[in-house]
Automatic annotation (TrEMBL):
This is Orotidine 5'-phosphate decarboxylase. The active site is at 97 (proton donor). Pathway: Pyrimidine metabolism; UMP biosynthesis via de novo pathway; UMP from orotate: step 2/2. The gene is pyrF. It comes from the Bacteria. The lineage of its organism: Bacteria, Bacillati, Bacillota, Tissierellia, Tissierellales. It comes from Tissierella pigra. GO terms for molecular function: orotidine-5'-phosphate decarboxylase activity. SUPFAM superfamilies: Ribulose-phoshate binding barrel. NCBIfam families: pyrF_sub2.
Length: 285
């Protein structure tokens, strides 16, 4: 099962999920001068990141907005990056955060679990109801695909809706309880299901309870670095060092910019950022 593969990748390489949220402003001038087309510029930058981090990175997450923003060429870069990651047998998350009625969800599932944009995992927004999540399950049945569903997000606005008290319990617990129950049908060999949850590392209140309640849920934990979450915060969502991957996008892909000699030492500074994040989270090899 794909979740077992992720578990093993984390064991072997650490908990880092690199977010390839590639804004043109993040790309060094030499790449922009060397390649003419936007798709090639973005892909070459992504490849440079991947090539120097693949041995110390559990999974890569591509936030699709960064590709859609550059139109057709952006989507070509998205496809090329996914193809390249697949050729390396590296795991991928398509961060698409979809949520819609069943007939539309069927097409989102086809669009991101098959064809040009095929990934191993996608992110989903459950706040339209559970019938917006279940259409993806036919892909889970075979064991090769998984989902990460928003539970409690990393943004300050998480408190506006996700924290609302519903029948004496916060709304995100209602989501979590249902996902945990649905996940029992898709259990992998290490005790985690193909239905994972997204929990922002920026909020740590109730982190211990969340980890405790949702034993079979693998977590995608964003918010590290640029949004302020620290190793000790995200660690609360892990279970003996596994059970979750921690995403950092800007913190890794713009790490080279923090150094005067960054462009000439791009690989060195990018790797250093991943190593120091792994260590901060508490990964021990
Ligand atoms: O689903 C996500 O990945 C996500 C959920 C969430 O609660 N917060 C959050 O920041 N994200 C994503 O995680 C990434 C965070 O990027 P950085 O803040 O640059 O590390 C972005 O791609 C966000 O869209």
């Amino acid at each position: 099962m794909i979740i077992d593969k992720l578990y093993k990748e984390v064991q072997a390489k650490g908990n880092v999920c690199i977010g390839l949220d590639t804004h043109l402003d993040y790309i060094p001038e030499d790449i922009k001068l060397k390649y003419k087309d936007v798709d090639e510029i973005i892909f070459r930058f992504n490849k440079k990141i991947i090539d120097c981090t693949e041995d110390i990175t559990a999974i890569y997450k591509l936030q699709i907005a960064y590709y859609e923003a550059y139109g057709i060429k952006g989507l070509i870069a998205y496809k090329k990056t996914l193809e390249y990651l697949r050729s390396l047998k590296a795991l991928t998350i398509g961060d698409i955060k979809r949520g819609d009625i069943q007939s539309t969800a069927d097409m989102y599932a086809k669009g991101h679990f098959e064809g040009d944009f095929e990934v191993d995992f996608i992110t989903l927004n459950p706040y339209m109801g559970f019938d917006s999540i279940t259409p993806y399950f036919k892909y889970l049945d075979e064991g090769n695909k998984g989902i990460f569903v928003l539970l409690r997000t990393s943004n300050p606005g998480a408190k506006d809706i996700e924290y609302l008290d519903v029948n004496g319990e916060k709304l995100y617990y209602h989501i979590g309880n249902k996902l945990e129950e649905l996940g029992t049908k898709y259990m992998g060999q290490f005790g985690y299901s193909l239905i994972g949850g997204v929990v922002g590392g920026t909020h740590t209140d109730e982190a211990i309870e969340i980890r405790e309640r949702y034993k079979n849920m693998y977590f995608l934990i964003p918010g590290y670095g640029a949004q302020g979450a620290k190793g000790q915060d995200v660690n609360l969502y892990l279970n003996n060092g596994n059970g979750g991957v921690v995403n950092s996008s800007r913190g890794i892909i713009t790490a080279y910019k923090k150094h005067e000699d960054g462009i000439g030492n791009f690989e060195k500074y990018t790797r250093e950022a991943v190593f120091s994040m792994r260590e901060d989270i508490g990964y021990e090899k």
